[in-house]
Amino acid sequence: MSHLVVGLSGGIGSGKTTVSDLFATHGVDIIDADVIARQVVEPGTPALEAIVAKFGQQVLNQEGELNRSQLRQLVFSEPSVKDWLNQLLHPLIRQQMHSQTQAAQSSYCILSVPLLVESKLNTLVDRVLIVDVSEATQLKRTVLRDKSNVEQISAIMSAQATRAERLALADDVIQNEGDASDLIKKVAQLHQQYLRLAANRNV
Ligand code: ADP
After folding, report:
1. Domain range enclosing 183
2. Among the three residues 86, 105, 124, which one is the final residue of a domain in this structure?
3. What is the pLDDT of residue 203?
4. Pocket of ligand 1 (CB under 6 A)
5. Can you tell me which atom of ligand 1 is nearest the CA of 180?
6. Considering only CA atoms, which residue is closest to atom 9 of ligand 1?
7. DSSP letters of 13-50?
8. What confidence tens digit (pLDDT) does each residue in 152-168 have?
9. Does one domain contain both 145 and 90?
10. Which residue, 14, 20, 37, 173, has most beta carbons within 10 Å?
11. What is the residue-wise DSSP string for 56-123?
12. Into how many domains does the chain fold?
């Protein structure tokens, strides 16, 4: 069982995925909020059944999976649908985050939550690690990665927490303006620090 849960977050394109992949190379268990958000509505789950009971078969695709673009349409045409969905899904997602962090086997684990600050999920973790870059770098790297345009990415960025809001909650910060080898070094250093912290909590 892990004795320390580190919450990893950062804005779109800051490098969260790259950083969590690097922690994974050290054998650290990674729990990914985006994966959990999909798991709680997999076919056969009570949440998917509740969604179908409310909106009908139209929210399923041919494979019987949740049709996300159809659901987005419903939310767009009726904003109260969003509250209903959040009330249904957020407790399930929190519960899963809790049980998966409890079940983690590495000495500490990482809970990667893109919207950690926005969803106030910092209460679920022992420490908050923020990957930080300038807005210009965020924009440049995301446009390159997603092959999307500046306007689309800027709109996503302005709907997210600000850099200052994130940094205000951080216990640790990885500045990711450097190159890949710089990032590898920073993650290795933090890994050693977290191993020490986890060992101290263990006694
Ligand atoms: P997030 O998961 O926070 O959205 P990613 O880890 O996907 O961010 O990183 C965004 C993009 O920037 C990816 O294409 C990634 O390969 C690239 N990237 C991450 N860190 C660096 C870096 N230090 N230098 C150059 N490119 C980077």
Report:
1. 1-28+107-203
2. 105
3. 64
4. 10, 12-18, 141, 145, 176, 178-180, 183
5. 23
6. 15
7. TSSHHHHHHHHHHTT-EEEEHHHHHHHTTSTT-HHHHH
8. 999 999 999 999 999 99
9. no
10. 14
11. -GGGB-TTSSB-HHHHHHHHHH-THHHHHHHHHHHHHHHHHHHHHHHH--SSSEEEE-TTTTTTTGGG
12. 2
CATH of the domain at 101: 3.40.50.300
Give yes or no: residues 85 and 4 share one domain: no
Task: Dig out the tokens for 167 from the structure.
Answer: 């940094």
Q: Are residues 85 and 176 in the same domain?
A: no
**For the whole prediction, is pTM greater than 0.90?**
yes
Q: Residues 72-123: pLDDT tens digits?
A: 999 888 889 999 999 999 999 999 999 999 999 999 999 999 999 998 888 8
Residue nearest to atom 22 of ligand 1 (CA): 179
Edge-to-edge strands of the sheet including 172-175?
Answer: 29-32, 109-112, 5-9, 127-132, 172-175
Name which residue sits closest to atom 6 of ligand 1, judged by CA: 15
- 57-70: per-residue pLDDT in tens? 999 999 999 999 99
**CB proximity list for 144: less than 8 A, separation 6 or greater:** none
Candidate from 19, 141, 166 with most ligand 1 atoms within 8 A of CB, to mutate = 141
CA of residue 131 to ligand 1 center, whole Å = 10
